[in-house]
């Protein structure tokens, strides 16, 4: 095992492969003092015969066919040190840069992915929003790292690393895309421990100790070098403040979401303008104004459930109208936009006899609806509940809306 001098301290033990990676990365040069167990004293790397082959060789002078200006070749002792253009990034600088990258990428994925899922894949959106938060974190982490790898390959860097003056140099023989994809995959396994929190504390601590000792992280050995150019204190402070703002904003969003969930489970009083009777609706249903072409129509939305509902009233010309005939007429009235896919079945809602049918939208296969009608003398009442990504009967508080509406009749 090898050791090398760094300032007034020594670093090691290192295998020959690890030492070779440090030479290629410029951390160890031909003039660096090295030592191993069978050596009596420290010696320059260029003076150790077994290590000479590890020093990159400079090409011989070009043949001169005509007089040319003199070209001064660098001495052999600096053949490796010329690669060391920038110092290695410190572990804490890398931590802040990585944290900022992960938070930015995660927020982008949540916002963009949430919109796409809600519009085009509502079933998947409902499954994700209803899943355990820890499970979501395990799923999102590799997607986030994949996004960072693509960003590095396409743009040459990520937002966090660029802000903190960090650059990952590709020392492998592979192209940028393959290099960064492989690097982020290894970061996911050897640093983040697949996103398992307790194990990740140990794996990240191990990587921190290696970087703090001047060694490359295990996922960079022989493949990459993480460099940092000098940046101002103001720029560092800006990066830290941006990270704090992102984390604080995300935590605030979670707190707001939890508070909204509590409100959704509560109830609010609503007065039926036709009967002047009050009822209690689940808090998830938010009333809003809507223009009705005939009769009375009241609109409610439950955004977190991807659901909407209509509560309608129509004054009939005479009493004794057959509910089945009224239901058939309503089915024909909405047939341009919706298809009733079931028979009208008798149901009882709040001790009222009613008819109910289910169907789907003609324009959006992800939209299902359920219509319930009842007649009380010359008053016809109906509810239409629309959902995306699942059936109305599978929607939490969907049945509660119909019961609350009918209790105001």
Would you mind describing this structure in some detail?
This protein is 39% helix and 23% strand. It contains 10 helices and 16 strands. Strands 9, 10, 11, 12, 13, 14, 15 and 16 form an 8-stranded antiparallel beta sheet that branches. Strands 2-1-3-4 form a 4-stranded antiparallel beta sheet. It starts with a strand and ends with a helix.
Would you spell out the secondary-structure blueprint of this structure?
Elements lengths: L1 E5 L2 E6 L1 H10 L7 E4 L6 E2 L46 H30 L1 H8 L3 H23 L3 H5 L2 E5 L5 H15 L6 H16 L11 E5 L4 H33 L1 E5 L6 E5 L3 E3 L7 E7 L4 E9 L7 H11 L4 E3 L4 E5 L2 E10 L5 E10 L2 E10 L9 H9 L3
Antiparallel strand pairs: 1-2, 1-3, 3-4, 5-6, 7-8, 9-10, 10-11, 11-16, 12-14, 13-14, 14-15, 15-16
Helix pairs in contact: 2-3, 2-4, 2-8, 4-6
Low-confidence stretches: 66-84
Structural class: alpha+beta
Total of domains: 3
Query: What is the overall shape?
Result: rod-shaped
The overall pLDDT average reads 88
How far do the termini sit from each other?
A: 86 Å
Helix content: 25-40%
Helix and strand run = EEHEEHHHHEHHEHEEEEEHEEEEEH
If you compute it from the alpha carbons, what radius of gyration comes out, rounded to the nearest whole angstrom?
34 Å
Content of β-strand: 15-25%
- Total number of strands: 16
